Each structure stands twice: as C-alpha cells, then as structure tokens.
Amino acid sequence: MLEHGGNLRDAALRFGRSDWLDLSTGINPAWYPVPPLADQAWHRLPENDPALAAAACAFYGAPSMLPVAGTQAAIQSLPRLRAPSRVIVAAPSYAEHAHHWAQHGHAMRQVPYAELDGAVAQADVLVICNPNNPTGATVPASDLLRWHAQLAARGGWLVVDEAFGDTDGGNSIAAHTHLPGLIALRSIGKFFGLAGLRLGFVAAHGEILKPLADMLGPWSISGPAQQIAIAALRDHAWQELTRRQLRDSGQHLRGLLAAQGIASQGTDLFQWWPEAHPEQFHEFMAQHGIWVRLFTQAARGIRLGLPPDEMGWQRLQTALEDWSKEKR
After folding, report:
1. 114 to each of 85, 90, 110, 194, 324, how far by Cα in Å?
2. CA-to-CA distance for 251 and 121, rounded, in angstroms?
C-alpha cells in the first residue's frame, strides 16, 4: 500500500510519543458537527437515498453524481472500466492515480503540469488533480475543457480530481460533466472534515456512472454516512462560515511560513513548498511532536495542514522558529 498522511500509529511507533499535532493531511480540523442519527440507520441495510445525490448535485453544481465510498473507490475502479489505453497522469500528483492506472493493461506515464498541453494528443485518458495534491497548483477550467474536447473526439476521458476544490470552486468542471468522457471526483472528507465517513462523489455522463455503479455493487454507502452527508451538503450557513474561517486560517499559515523565509503555495487547507532538506525538516518537526507530510519523490518537499486550535498554532510557530535558528 502507498503511504499517506494521517498515519499517527506509524509516527507513535517510530518516535515513541502520543502527543501529536497532526498536520500531515489537508483535512479541515474543524469538522462538520454530526447530527443525531435515526436509530434505523444502524439496523437497516443502506438503501440508496436519492436525496444524497440530489444534495451533492446542488452543492457541487453537477448535473448527475454517483455517491461512492470515498473517491478512492472511484480511483481504483475507473481504470477497470476501459480497455487498455494510453494514460497520462499529471505529475506530481496524488499517488493513487498513477498506481491504479498503471494496472489493467494500460500504458501509463506521468507528465509534468507544464507539459500537459503538448501531451494530450498522445493520450486516451488524462488524469489531473485540480487543485493539485500536494502542491496546490491549479489549471484554468478553460484549459481543462479544451483538453477534454480533444480527448472526447477520439472516445477519450478527462478525469479531474477536485477533492480540494470546495474552498474555491472557480476552476471546477463539475457543471460540464454531462459531456461524454468528462469525469469529476469530489470528496466529503476534506472541506467538511469527515474523512472517516468514507464518502465521495463522481460526476459524469450516465454511460460512465451506470457501469461504475454496477461495479461497486449494492450498499456501498452506509446508512449513517448518507444521513450525515445530506445534512452537511444542505447546511449553507455552516459552509459559508467555514469558507471564511478556512480562508483566514490559510492566510495565517502562509504568513507563519513566510515569516521564516519559506515561500509556500497551496490551498486554504494546506501549504506545500520544495524544502531543500525535507527529510531533516520532517525529523525535526517530529522531535517537536508535529507530524507533517514528507514527499521524497516528484513533489519533493513538505506539506502542512491547519492546526486545530490556538495551542496548535503556537506549537507550530515555536517549532518553525526553532528550525530557522538551527539552519543558521
């Protein structure tokens, strides 16, 4: 299995401590307050509630969406719906995309973001994270739709992972997913802070959603997950307040890093930078009880999520100041 953030058990085993400030994911630390659930949510088999897909379509602005058990379920399944194809995955990117498209007979290669425009002609499928995970880089929706038109003309797909797109949806292509071969992936886990719910959505044309639903099978979304997600997706007041709070927190994080000479980029949920000594930074922060995300390959550098409270912000600021002193 590939390595991911949030692996605090590994951190505890390696460093022998349990008082972690976990900044290794880009998950909102102020999660949606889960409402009381109907008792039958735990008793009945989870019939698909059409209200869930309707709430998702309204929130994401998509014409049709399929609930899935986290976008990971779609990432693993979509490569199985195509005959062997020429696949390009934008790099660097969320590693699970390349991992799964490299299987099932596909000819997969990774292409840097700056070279995608010239590479589309050599692809049947293009997979891109927008905003990118882990760097936060974005591609204008106009470019994505232009690439999709080229791919669709020969029966190809454009798969856009928009898991971090909820704080600023200006470049989302979800509204256009009625077009054949255009697929958007969205996640409840990041903006709503409900990663443990294991729920995401696929926006696409019916010719993709139907076989995907058949492949995933019945009861893929638990009854409690459906009830919680419907409440979260309909709670406009919480969503607007949270966007403002995350915008302020994102600016605060960028400011803390800039104060120590770190030029970062990212979203309102995380910041990434090409740290010159990422292994040393990761180790130093771990010794301070702060678990950050280390990238050693294509996105070589460090990613930080948001602290959950004022004590966490103070711990991070102190550790960053200590790191700057040690480098001098």
Report:
1. 22, 9, 12, 33, 32
2. 38
